[in-house]
Predict the 3D structure of the following.
Amino acid sequence: MWGGGGGGAARAFTRALGRWRAAAVPPGVAGGDHAALSIQTGLRGTLQDYCYEIQLKSSSTLPEMKSSMLTVKRLFCTSHSSVDSKEMKKFQHLAHKWWDEEGEYSALHSMNDIRVPFIRDTLLNTSSNYDLGSPLSGVKILDVGCGGGLLSEPLGRLGASVTGIDPLEDNIRTAEQHKSFDPVLAKRIQYKFSSLEEIVEESMETFDVIVASEVVEHVADLEMFIKCCSQVLKPEGSLFITTISKTQLSYVLGIVVAEKIMGIVPEGTHEWEKFVPPEELEHLLELNGFSVKTVNGMLYNPLSGSWSWMESRSVNYALHAVKSGAQGQSSPTDALSEMGSEQRSATAGTAL
């Protein structure tokens, strides 16, 4: 989250690093965390064994086997939660500040300048049959951890049907209130006070696209979060993630500089231990039936308040992955292609 800004800024940064050199080594993981992880792993293994036994007993035919496997996957997601209560407390008192472009979420406002075109252009890359005024018409998007709706709204303006979910009720209230100012968005966006796991049962393979922007570094169980994303995403659907890498540089710039020195975000917003290296995220996605298509580095310049793409993925990065397909299932591109120009014109709005 840092960009170039002249000799003075560079010298100030160097002095700051000198003052915070001791803090630049990320803290270790306490022994108690290992014990809790062992207990959680054991419980999860027991649950999986139990579900597998049920699956075997009900697998006399192929359709029944498929049904049982889906049941196991639902049970896995609905029996756990990726929501970290400690993380929720961090954001509780900021729920009313989402739409303050000069406040604590200013960096997320400016991130829209690159993340919205990234999502839009990726989805349209293989399709030429779309309406310029409403290019994402017909696409059902799930915005996980939507906060106050900073990403849901521009996607809705592009014509998408957006469902935004967040485990903080105050965030949903803020999002609902802001959406109400625009009658077009009021029809295209719905918000739910819910975690991802809580909607799995009702939303199996429902969405063409999932976006999880600046979310995975706050979840309690990343692998389970990805499994649940897979459950609610249609075959050949797209998953977009933006997050922070886990490097010494990301610790210095993302926590020491951004939080402790410059106050770009409130101190304590991030925990370095929860940052996710792109290689680890790619591996987890591939293990859960995704094919990673793109991983782009991102750079935030606090002096200009703007984001740009970069080759290095050592601090921030954006990822696009596609869920493995099944015969007869439609993809987000198919959804765009199937929308006739007459229907798209009827739902057209103002593009970002």
Notes: The chain has 13 helices and eight strands. The chain has a mean pLDDT of 76. Residues 31-57 form the longest helix (27 residues).
